What we know:
heterodimer; A: alpha/beta; five-stranded mixed β-sheet; 22% helix; B: 13 helices; 69% helix
Amino acid sequence: MKPIIRVENLSKRYSIGGLDAGYATFREMFAGVMAAPFRRLRKSYKPTTEVIWALKDINFEVQPGEVVGLIGHNGAGKSTLLKILSRITIPTTGRSEVYGRIGSLLEVGTGFHPDLTGRENIFLNGTILGIRRSEIARRFDEIVAFSEIEKFIDTPVKWYSSGMYLRLAFSVAVHLDTEVLIMDEVLAVGDMSFQQKCLDKMSEIRKQGHTILFVSHNMAAVTRLCERVLLIDKGHIVRDGEAHVIVNEYMGASLKVTSEKEWVEGERAPGNHVVRLRKVRARDEEGRTAESVDIRKRVGVEMTYDVLEAGHMLTPKILLSNEEGANLFSSHDVGPEWRSRPREKGTYVSTLWIPGNFLSEGNVLIHAAIESHLPSTATHVYERDVATFQIVDKQHGDSARGDYIGPIPGLLRPLLDWTTDFQIAGAPDASPLEVTLHD
Amino acid sequence: MANESAGVLEERESAVETERESEAGLPQSAPPERLPESPVVVNDARDSLVPLSLKELVAHRELLYFLTWRDIKVKYKQTAMGAAWAIIQPLFMMLVFSVFFGIFMGVSTEGMSYFLFFYSGLLPWTFFSTAIMLGSVSLVNNANLITKVYFPRIIIPASVVGAGLVDLLIASVIFAGLAVYHDVSLSPKLLMLPALFLLTTLLSLGFGTWLAALTVKYRDVRHALPFVTQVWFFVTPIIYPLSVVDEKWRWMMYANPLTGIVEGIRASLVADKAFNWTGIYVSTALTVVILVGSVYAFRRIEKSFADLI
């Protein structure tokens, strides 16, 4: 299929160190000022000490209807790329082509004026974003209803609370109706319920077949909304592929851990003369190392270790934490098979099985330990941040998410039973009818 | 038969559809089923000069309208007098000039009343000087727009001139009143007035866009402009008639495009004063050169505004 966005050899150079610096004399300055606009700008650039390539040789294509996430560290070049696509700035080399109209939301409330009322700002901001006046007028009520500030629509926005301001601004933005929508971290506004509304709106936009390019540092939102992710680092596209794979790699790289850790040199492996850790990994039910796991599926955390001295009673232990560093839970192997049983020398593989529909979505860090509890407590292995895996909660409808697509708080996301008692309105004496879900 | 009429109806409907789209310039339809043959939005490093696409300007005409509207609205928000300020300023200056330069110093007005004489100079001058002062900082003041949204940047200085035009229109009410009060004869010469104000508008647009672009790169303009305009005020025949300048220096006065305009406005009000066509032609030629040069210069550095601002 023909791409809707095509980017070829795109580079963007910034010179840092001040363009205006270095007029030696007043006469020189005067000459410079008078002549500046009539000279080729490029030639009037004075050689500056430092040149930065915000983007270097970027090539990619986006198919119509794709939702593509751009991720990367601050200063990686994500925003520069969006600015070039939306023609705010010109590339130093290369070319970008878009086969459709672009709506870019690099900021919410661009051009909002504090002295103007909500109503006036809707028209001003809408026009700035490229929505036609008749279109704004037609959808005005819809926009106001979405923002939930009907009462204050004729109040100057300088008297709005910051939340009201953002809601109004975003309401205009989500009514952009272009073939390509470019967004820079705009979801990070408003309270939870409003964010939810925005996400609903976005998936509605997506369902209409619009193409979306989306920069975010919110990895959960990226995996939820995008099928494809471009990872940008130091001006290059370093990875391009399926969203959850790339996100997991990126998270792992920034945490400096991967989904599998193996110690090849025996002496370097964590442990002591009793036991040494050989390998830790997350695995799926088929035995494959799992970088990312569907939230509905079981995931195993497997540790391989060599017992070097016979006769010790060992308890393997796994602690899981999320990317914010909050501990999720810790689990000991208390199964009867190896509990209180002295071990022989040899290689053991212990796997902790975590049920599906239990962990919350996001990245999970694995910390491994091996302890003895009898006759006295001793810690043989205690290794933090050994490996990581990612839980993905796509909108399948049968996870705890149901049909909801917004962010869900909580360290865990179990699928639990609900009961609902129901009484027909106006029949107080009728016996209650019990409805049980998830039977 | 039924089929045929349905076909005709369909055809008519689709004709209406295309008409609406082409009229709008920017169809607001959902994504097209087939992509256009050529790209709609191109950003290429090799395009050294962004062409001044009139089509694009027309497509953004509503933005020009709204930015102009915003400038006017914001200017008079939270003022007790509101748009009356557009009148008060030139009116007050007219009174001051009439007292000091007219009554005290006895400046020659070539037979015109002091009020009409000074007001006819102040009207284009206030418009022009406000337009270039506000125009010069317009891009910098709208940096938040320039770094976040694409549109032809020339709309920003143009909207400043647009807002100035509204003030000019309001201030013209006093002008008309003075003309009636002083029995200005209804002659065909008055037809030159709209033309001369159009010339002033184009001149303001020319200087406004140029200074706006210059200020993006050199903030020095902000410091230089106040005294440059002050000098400009004195070299324009506002508080004196051109006739007080010695004949052999008069050509120098015409190097100032405002000279021909102010003199022209006064000539159109006085029955027995002939137009100085040379002055008007020189002003027109200078205006065209300045406008074309400015727009060209503006387009040349427009694409780097977002990086410089």
